[in-house]
Each structure stands twice: as structure tokens, then as C-alpha cells.
Amino acid sequence: MTWQRRLWLVFRGIMIVVFGIVLALMPRISFFLFLAAFATLGIIDGIAALAIGISKRRQNPRWWLIALSGVAGLVIAGLIIFAPGLTKITLIYAFAIWAIIVGVTQMLAFFRTRSLRTDWLSLLPAVFSLIIGGYLLLKSSPNVVTDVRFIGLYAIVYGILTFFQALQPARTREAVPQEAPPRHGYD
């Protein structure tokens, strides 16, 4: 692992831990700010995409796709503003699905590139993501404040695991002797 990769993992781990602490200590405020920022983005991006799509209708035969993305942004912003309870639960489930996808893709990448004997610490964030995502997806009743705290704790542990990945000793590759090409009797 290069020193740039190690530095990135340290930085990423620290930022994820800070994010987790904020979520765990202030779940209502942080979730409200996230929803407000997402709604604002939906409104601004929605209006811009709708305006661009309509203005390009003569030059671009697919103008309606741009306009449709603008309408989608406005609809999502409207849902966040006018049905925040539904939005909160949907975002918890979206996070759970995201955590499962992250876990699966990290596991696939791990088993294609690493050895369980030497790099087992690199597998822990993937396993942890699968467990947390599965728990949030399958639990019986969502409680947004508790779930946001839980996501905050997940972020803290995930960040720590990422941080320790950077501190893992470098793998040493043993020199593999090169075999001579097979002889075909032409000595």
C-alpha cells in the first residue's frame, strides 16, 4: 500500500468518525440539516434542470430527459418538505441498502485482490457494513432518532476500522522463482 493510500485511509477514517460523532450526539439536528440541505439541492437543481431542458428543446431531441430530472428533483424536494416522516423512513432504508451494497462490493474486491491470512483487517469494514445494513433493513419498526444514532455509531466504528487499515503493516511479497520455459527437444 502506498503512503498516499495510507494517508487517504487515515483522513477518510477520521472524517467518518467525526461524522459519526455528530450523528450520534445530535441525531435530530444533524438529520434535520441533512433533509434541509437535500431539499434545497432538489429545488435548486430541479429548477435549473427544468429550465435547461425546456430551453434546449429545439437543439436537443432528448431535452425532455433533462426536464424530467428537474421534475424529479422538485418532487423529491416536495416530499422532503411536505412529508418528512415518509422521507425519514425512506432515507433510513436507503442507507441500509447502501451499507449492504458497500459491504458486498468491498467483499468482492477483497477476495479478488487480497489474502485472508494477511489482510483480514481489510475485510472487517465490509462485514460490519453487511451486518448493520441487514439489521436496519430487517428490523421491525423504524425509529428515526434511534436509527440515526445507530448510523452514527456505525460511522464511528467504520471510521476506526478504516483508520486501522492504514496502519496495517505492508505485505511482503515473497520472490517466486521463475521457471524456465518448457523445452521441446530442440537443444
Automatic annotation (TrEMBL):
| Protein's name according to its UniProt entry | Membrane protein
Q: Which InterPro entries match?
A: Acid_resist_chaperone_HdeD (IPR052712), DUF308_memb (IPR005325)
Superkingdom of this entry's organism?
Bacteria
| Species for this entry | Ktedonobacter racemifer DSM 44963
Q: What GO CC annotations are associated with the protein? A: plasma membrane
Quick check: keyword GTP-binding in the entry?
no
Q: Provide the transmembrane region boundaries.
A: 7-25, 31-51, 63-83, 89-111, 120-138, 150-167
Alphabetized UniProt keyword annotations: Membrane, Transmembrane, Transmembrane helix
What would be one Pfam family of this protein?
DUF308
